[in-house]
Amino acid sequence: MASNPDVQQFLTALRGRITPEQAGLTTFGSERRVPGLRREEVAQLAGVSTAYYTRMERGDLGGVSESVLYALVRALELNEAESAHLFDLARAATGLRRAPRVKPTPRVSPRLALLIDALDVPALAMTQLGDCVASNPMGRALFPDLFPPDRPPLNGTRYLFLDDRARVFYPDWEKTAREAVSGLRLMAGHDPSDRALMALVGELATRSADFRTWWGGHTVRTHFAGTKTIHHPVVGDMTLGFEVMALPSTPGLNLLTYIAEPSTPSADALNLLRSWTADSAATEIDTARQH
């Protein structure tokens, strides 16, 4: 079977981050020419021959059993996302390759739209590629750059890498951008036949040197919860907790919500944004009535 460079680079990066001491291996005084573990050391930890592991690292995962994959998970100390990515790569190597296809854009049901609009916190329904298909007024107010007047919403991933405003809006831009890359890498391993995903990756790799570099690092992580610090153009700096919830009724769509810790400057800023949003809505209603 032909080698798979994605597998090769992924496994090479993983063994490069673990030292023999971390793995509990005894080393001697000879100079090491590679960072992290050698191939024979990974093979030893996984209980396979060096030749067999070398075959796997070169991208030939065809016919590799689950028990060997789990042994690699333990040897390389993979987290949940990395383990899932390894199994996705193995599944792609052993199964029939699907022809590239365009997935239909997920549609928001009327009930989900009502729910999003009723939430008193910023909320957006987004595809995994970063297309916003529904949002409430607070969500649009929190991310004003993504919602230009009289135009469709911007793709959040393109905005992050190709719009200079993103580097101001996210003070910790690199962390946010790296998280986006790792999420796309995880999706690419799970479904390499997604034409829209591959087109987005190709565009970003061509136009963004940062994306191109981080994509080559093969880091995979899931980001379903955490905090984000943003510099909002109206209410200033905020650190908000976020939750990303998959919607089983609408595959491919996630609900994102944002909230601030009570009695903090971020909560005050979010309340100010809430008031500003309400005032803007009232002004729009008055203007519409006058016409």
Key attributes of the depicted protein:
single chain, 291 residues, alpha+beta, 434 Repressor (Amino-terminal Domain), Beta-Lactamase, 2 domains, five-stranded antiparallel beta sheet, 5 strands, elongated
Quick description:
The protein has helices at 5-16, 20-23, 39-46, 50-57, 66-75, 80-94, 110-118, 137-142, 156-162, 165-169, 173-190, 195-207, 209-215, 265-290; strands spanning 123-127, 132-135, 225-232, 236-246, 253-259.
Summarize the helices and strands and which ones pair or pack.
Elements: H1 5-16, H2 20-23, H3 39-46, H4 50-57, H5 66-75, H6 80-94, H7 110-118, E1 123-127, E2 132-135, H8 137-142, H9 156-162, H10 165-169, H11 173-190, H12 195-207, H13 209-215, E3 225-232, E4 236-246, E5 253-259, H14 265-290
Antiparallel strand pairs: 1-2, 1-5, 3-4, 4-5
Helix pairs in contact: 3-4, 3-5, 5-6, 12-13
Protein name: Transcriptional regulator
InterPro entries: Cro/C1-type_HTH, Lambda_DNA-bd_dom_sf, MLTR_LBD
Organism: Terrabacter aerolatus
